[in-house]
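Researcher: We plan to redesign the surface later, but first we want a full-length starting point. Tokens attached.
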């Protein structure tokens, strides 16, 4: 499993990458492999401020739908429009082109409570 060291992770299998005052959020390589072929990503919360741990969207795979939980509080600024026509980017490149939302961070101190790559690796075994 690919678990980049420069990201923070949640127990619900989301990742977050902070770049200045913004952060990018997606699902982990482990999550996409467990879900299987992703056929639709839905985010209807653009423009909303969401608290840490709240649902901001969902991912639909062939056999299931999973909620997406925000790793840190913030305003949803942008949905990755490329996922509208190519949701498989989440399968093919979960940490790159398959990012799901860009947010403005409300409380970067919340990052301290997230999992490091080593801790996430221990979680998924």
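Model: Full-length starting sequence:
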């Amino acid at each position: 499993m690919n678990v980049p060291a420069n990201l923070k992770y949640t127990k619900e299998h989301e990742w977050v990458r902070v770049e200045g005052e913004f952060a990018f959020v997606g699902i982990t390589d482990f999550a996409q492999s467990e879900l299987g072929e992703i056929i639709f990503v839905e985010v209807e919360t653009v423009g909303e401020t969401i608290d840490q741990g709240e649902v901001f969207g969902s991912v639909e795979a062939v056999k299931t739908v999973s909620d997406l939980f925000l790793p840190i509080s913030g305003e949803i600024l942008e949905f990755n429009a490329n996922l509208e026509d190519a949701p498989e980017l989440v399968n093919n490149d979960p940490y790159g082109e398959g990012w799901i939302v860009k947010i403005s961070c409300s409380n970067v101190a919340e990052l301290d409570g997230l999992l490091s790559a080593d801790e996430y690796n221990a979680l998924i075994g």
